[in-house]
DNA sequence: TATAATGATTGTTC
DNA sequence: GAACAATCATTATA
């Protein structure tokens, strides 16, 4: 009990002292406070003016007892008692004794050099929040990153801008909640620190409190509060991660390409059936025509090649259909050379492809290229000798 | 509602 | 890095 109630003497509202355990001091106090010279003026030092040294010790004991029990009293009583103690003529003597004890026991120096490095977890969370655009200046970094990731994989759907704005608005919500909470936290931390500092300053009237000690106490408070900050940052990071994963998952919500886009792609595919590997330029051209990305074009051709190869029979009808179309386009091209392809919308020439002349049914009686599954037997030169470009491919075939 | 079709993703190979 | 192959997940259709 003595240890828990050192010489604070500041009433019920007191916090405990910062490790200034009065206990060893209490014991030494009596011995320290008994030099002969003190006894000689014991009449002044005794509470009731007695000259008996024994009585003096009892008086000091009474004072200490009052200090110990001060926290059990009401605020008003305690304040009154505190004032009385502060004005007590014994106070300077007690204060100097406490200073002496403190110096002897090295309390003021204990644990003062514990400069902890910054919490690595906090650093990590800070970096993450900064990267996601939650902390630091608002610039939508995370959203941009997520969107660019989605774009690079060619997964942006036509309404990706909607998703993007949705993502951004949700991120900004998280951001604002985070900043509000952080502000609250900082305010609470500042308020509490100020309160404790005031308390310590108040206490410094009755016991020795060095500025170093106050600093140390502030550091302790900040450390305690930083765990709350870490929690806040952690939950914010989690929220961002969940949002992000949901946004990225949304890429899988595919939309079928438009009929026209599929038509354009199919026309290219079947008219280059002997070598359905569009070059980068051709892919870009197709992408532009279809209103999709180059990656989507690549995906489409990848899927198409595999699915065609796996089940040529199933695609026969489709092949014939497009053969007819391209043949018609070719004939039109003969009649009117300024309308080079069957769709009439593309800038690359399908009629120029030799593939389509490989056997358009009903045109020249030759076997259709689209019926020539057996010819390439579902396997193209492919990776072993990919065509340098469909332009060259086309020019090679047409030449 | 089951199934087919289809765009996207992932791991592997060259 | 491009293509392949398998697979996933969503959409369309019977």
From TrEMBL:
SUPFAM superfamilies linked: Homeodomain-like (SSF46689)
Annotated organism of origin: Oryzias melastigma (Marine medaka)
Protein name, entry field: Pre-B-cell leukemia homeobox 2
Domain PBC: 55-249
Upper taxonomic lineage: Eukaryota, Metazoa, Chordata, Craniata, Vertebrata
Kinase in keyword set: no
Location of the Homeobox domain: 248-311
Keyword Transcription: yes
Composition skew (Low complexity), residue ranges: 144-157, 342-353
